[in-house]
Description:
This protein has a single domain (9-413), classed as MFS general substrate transporter like domains (Growth Hormone, Chain: A, Up-down Bundle). It has 20 helices and no strands. The protein has helices at residues 7-38, 43-71, 73-92, 97-125, 130-137, 140-158, 162-167, 170-180, 189-193, 197-203, 207-233, 241-257, 259-266, 268-286, 293-305, 308-319, 324-356, 364-368, 375-395, 397-413. α1 (7-38) runs antiparallel to α4, α16 packs antiparallel against α17 (324-356) and α17 runs antiparallel to α19. It starts with 6 loop residues before the first helix and ends in a 13-residue tail after the last helix.
Amino acid sequence: MNQNVNPNRLFVASxxxxxxxxxxxATRGGMMEPWMQEFDLTAGxxxxxxxxxxxxxxxxxxxGGPLVxxxxxxxxxxxxxxxxxxxxxxxxxATGFWSLYISTLIIGISNGSVEAACNPLIAxxxxxxxxxxxxxxxxxxxxxxxxxxxxxxxxxxIGFGWRVHMGIMLIPTVIYGFxxxxxxxxxxxxxxxxxxxxxxxxxxxxxxxxxxxFCMILTAGTELGTNQWITALLENVGVPAILLxxxxxxxxxxxxxxxxxxxxxxxASGVLLISAIxxxxxxxxxxxxxxxxxxxxxxxxxxxxxxxxxTMLGFVSENVPKSGALGLAIMGGIxxxxxxxxxxxxxxxxxxxxxxxxxxxxxxxxxxxxxxxxKEAAMWAEAKLTGGTTSLRYVALLPLILVFMFGYLYxxxxxxxxxxxxxxxx
Length: 426
């Protein structure tokens, strides 16, 4: 690696950039209900807005991944900084569906640019500890959600609205932009090893890579789709739903901090199998829990999804190393594309199940117009809770499929050695 490269500063700057990505996720989750009320939007429409951040991320990953080797990681980071500032300001001054849609899209592209540059950057700087360092890097996605969730909760208690919640993200954006400013970036691991672009493209259509890409659709949809909606789905569960998101994210951050020994003991495929089992169990438990028990159920769910994203990336980087930055970009892009589909679908299911739960003789219009404290208001709260918990049971089907897929992966690869890059052009 170039001696002018400062791995510690680049790693810390990457973590702060990921915190901004997480803040956009956490604050957006808390804004979905206020947006529906202020701009007269349905849950489905808000789902499409939130989903835009995910497919914007996908576009940035798929385009930015190959460009990392061409224009450099530093320029991809510059795009992320500029996009975060523009997207945050546009959201603050939004006036309805389309302005929210466009601003969220820009933020999604910025978030994708962060991962398009930082994932291969970290894999390059720490070639012998990829899964461990990627897990430590991705600590700051749930860690950022904890920070954002608590900030949203406290600012809401004080009386500040969602625009202030959005504005606080400008602070860490400026910080990570400054930390990256003027820094030297290494060439990617693939380029340093002399592996050709042809070999890279061949690697991303290999059977193992395609298998993992399909699994990423399910893991990301389960994790990101659920976390994006959890504050709305469980709004009336008996505890502040934003604190459930903070609880889940706090457990994820703590778990990823200790990823090294866990992955070493169980292997990446073993971790993924156990994660799928716990995730499915947690979703089912959440759909039947209320009050304090919701935190216990959420803890099971959190333990399940903790290692999904970084371990998927680490597994691919270690077992299909020639896929390089493109492979990591495709995996991340597919993950967020999945979330961009699951998020609006979950909103539509939530709308439908909520309506189905309304007692006979009442309508959505009657119940939403009810004064707080009335029988009708209580009916509406109960209908939304039923709609939310029922929606979670549908999501639980995804980790059920993953149990079988990761079981197969573990059985066939648990004793295989990790591959290394060859100094060859092929």
